[in-house]
Amino acid sequence: xxxxxxxxxxxxxxxxxxxxxxxxxxxxxxxxxxxxxxxxxxxxxxxxxxxxxxxxxxxxxxxxxxxxxxxxxxxxxxxxxxxxxxxxxxxxxxxxxxxxx
Length: 101
Fold this sequence. Notes:
three-stranded antiparallel beta sheet; 3 strands; alpha+beta; single chain; CATH 2.40.50.40; 17% strand; 2 domains; 38% helix; 2 helices
């Protein structure tokens, strides 16, 4: 009876591992693969969110969402990115929508 219990345990452990790997892959499907260091006009941006390697993505990035719902990936260390984020944060009371992951 011990071999049967061992086989059942191994099957359950395998299924658990497969589910963990597939759910981790689903979470990383919305990551920026590269960033472009081209300034985006404030008037075109409605919100932003950040992406980190801790979230399962390959690179850190700041994702700006335009009024036309385009997602533009920018390098988080750039001075213009920091300035735009501050400007959006100080004026976000004018925005009705919030960026969602």
